[in-house]
Automatic annotation (TrEMBL):
Residues 193-369 form the Peptidase M16 C-terminal domain. The keyword Signal applies. This is Peptidase M16. InterPro entries: Metalloenz_LuxS/M16, MPP/UQCRC_Complex, Pept_M16_N, Peptidase_M16_C. Keywords: Signal. It comes from Undibacterium terreum. The lineage of its organism: Bacteria, Pseudomonadati, Pseudomonadota, Betaproteobacteria, Burkholderiales. Residues 1-20 form the signal peptide. GO terms for molecular function: metal ion binding. Residues 52-184 form the Peptidase M16 N-terminal domain.
Length: 467
């Protein structure tokens, strides 16, 4: 009898996203399994198109960088430079010739390798994918070019404040916590990284007990399990996982403003808010409805007031940005420098409507219908579903949150909305980041809290330390 290498944890009843008779959205059926070496595997069959999406996800993002900001990101990108069996030229030519795609993804808490290809090319491309993940070489010359490109991209990013305002915001809110680490790193930290640093990071974090493999698409489960076991089953952990640094929590003892000077700016980019929620928070779904009203769609309060009614900006929004343990919330927009005071005041007063006027039944019903219409299309393709399963793995999200989406939306009432607003939307001691011409907006900034000044030309995203 063949040794059984997989432990099946779940198997559903359908192979694609469904809407039940009552209109409920349902996560497609999938299996959770483990290879002989402990690697977690998610398998989701979808036979509507002859394509396969593969995603390897590691619990190793910017929070694992330590004092070498950008290390996880550069290591992830370095996987694409070739492996022991396949050099970069071979990888690029093979995927391009077959019309397939491969890329890396790094975030605050995860790194990953992502590939999409035709079903009939799986036997050829999966071995390349596996070798790139397990045995990257970080070839010296290619690594040097990658590092130089990354430094150039960091420098260019600061030319557009909207690209970096969230990075300053997380640094402000989380301080010394690992959640403050900039995913892409800083100019000086990335420039200092060496090939040996990437090799050490890969040895420490790229291991089967710290990873999951997601396969979604047109395949036969038995054959796919056998192929994955052959390709990944000999992957072994090297020593103990490094002890994680504390991620940190948002502390806001008083209202504060980080004023980031961009001396040539002709507009002000601003963002204010405070603590948010974790991705697996039980209120996550209903908060998406409330945020839709405030700043999550074109007809939201913020966009109506700041763009449509006053013409102060081309767009305004609000957003919960969840992480695995906590998160942030922010209202954000941008405006011409002379209009900074008016735009900030209008954004603040519009945000205050959550408490001053609340959310009436008609507004709530409109938002609920909008959210229910927008949700299912987010998980139609194999790539989208692979991303969802990876997100569930990293953030410990149970399938109940997805399967009960429609129920949670429909059960939201104006009374429940008021409780959620009071519980989750930061109201007092707001934290603010302003990026613009400091001499023109310093007096305005002082109205919103204690000011700390930075300059956008500095390497990092914090007042005194380079993260």
């Amino acid at each position: 009898m063949m040794k059984r290498f997989f432990i099946l944890a779940f198997a559903g009843l359908s192979s694609f996203a469904t809407l039940a008779a009552a209109g409920d959205f349902r996560l497609p059926a999938f299996e959770t399994a483990k290879l002989s070496n402990g690697l977690t595997v998610y398998l989701m069959e979808r036979h509507d198109v002859p394509l396969i999406a593969v995603r390897a996800v590691l619990k190793a993002g910017a929070v694992s960088d330590g004092q070498q900001a950008g290390l996880a990101n550069l290591t992830g990108d370095g996987l694409l430079l070739g492996s022991e069996k396949y050099d970069k030229k071979t990888v690029d030519q093979t995927f391009d010739f077959l019309g397939a795609r491969i890329s890396s993804v790094t975030g605050a808490e995860q790194s990953g390798l992502v590939a999409d290809f035709a079903r009939d090319d799986a036997a050829k491309l999966l071995p390349i994918f596996a070798d790139m993940l397990q045995h990257p070489v970080f070839e010296e010359n290619e690594f040097g070019k990658l590092r130089a490109r990354t430094v150039d991209e960091l420098r260019q990013a600061k030319e557009s404040p909207r690209n970096v305002v969230q990075t300053y915001y997380r640094s402000m809110l989380f301080g010394d916590g690992a959640y403050a680490n900039p995913v892409s790193g800083s100019l000086t930290s990335v420039a200092a990284l060496q090939r040996s640093d990437l090799q050490a990071f890969h040895r420490a974090y790229y291991r089967p007990d710290n990873a999951a493999l997601v396969v979604v698409g047109d395949f036969k489960p038995t054959a796919m399990r056998q192929q994955l076991e052959g390709l990944f089953g000999k992957w072994r952990a090297n020593g103990e996982l490094p002890k994680p640094r504390a991620n940190g929590t948002v502390t806001a003892p008083k209202s504060r403003v980080w004023l980031v000077n961009k001396s040539d700016a002709v507009e002000t980019t601003f963002l204010f808010g405070g603590a948010g929620i974790a991705r697996n928070d039980p209120d996550y779904v209903q908060l998406q409805v409330l945020n839709t009203i405030l700043g999550g769609r074109f007809t939201s309060w913020l966009n109506d007031e700041l763009r449509v009614n006053s013409g102060l900006t081309y767009g305004a929004r609000s957003e919960f940005s969840p992480l695995s343990q906590t998160g942030t919330f922010a209202v954000s927009s941008f405006t011409a420098t002379p209009k900074t005071e008016a735009a900030l005041a209008l954004a603040a007063s519009t945000y205050q409507r959550l408490w001053d006027k609340g959310i009436d039944a008609a507004t709530l019903e409109s938002a609920k219908a909008y959210v229910k219409g927008q949700y299912p299309p987010r998980f139609e393709t194999s790539q989208q579903l692979a991303g969802l399963l990876a997100d569930m793995y990293i953030n410990k999200v149970g399938r109940d949150q997805i399967d009960h989406f429609t129920r949670d939306v429909d059960s939201l009432t104006p009374e429940r909305a008021k409780l959620l607003v009071d519980k989750h939307f930061p109201r007092d001691k707001l934290q603010m980041v302003l990026i613009g011409k400091a001499e023109a907006i310093r007096g305005i900034a002082a109205k919103y809290g204690e000011i700390t000044e930075l300059d956008i030309t500095a390497s990092g995203f914090a007042p005194t330390t380079v993260k």
